[in-house]
Amino acid sequence: DYESLRIGGMIFAVILFLMGIFLIVSECQTICVGNAAAKGTSQSKWRRKQ
């Protein structure tokens, strides 16, 4: 029925949302840690340049 379809869609949307957040966080850690190790500093590429 409509209610179970609605609940299933909401669960599917939440799973996709969490997977997207996980990918963004893991990609940032890989890029930020890789850049900091290559430069020898603790600055990341996400910080503003002053």
TrEMBL record:
Q: What is the protein named?
A: FXYD domain-containing ion transport regulator
The question of whether Transmembrane helix is a record keyword is answered with yes
Residue ranges annotated as transmembrane are: 7-25
Species name: Sinocyclocheilus anshuiensis
Lineage, uppermost ranks: Eukaryota, Metazoa, Chordata, Craniata, Vertebrata
Question: What molecular function terms (GO) are annotated for this protein?
Answer: sodium channel regulator activity
Highest taxon listed in the record's lineage: Eukaryota
Question: Pfam families from the xrefs?
Answer: ATP1G1_PLM_MAT8
Example GO CC term: the record gives:
membrane
Q: Which family does it belong to?
A: Belongs to the FXYD family.
Which InterPro entries does the record associate with it? Ion-transport_regulator_FXYD (IPR000272)
Membrane topology designation: Single-pass type I membrane protein
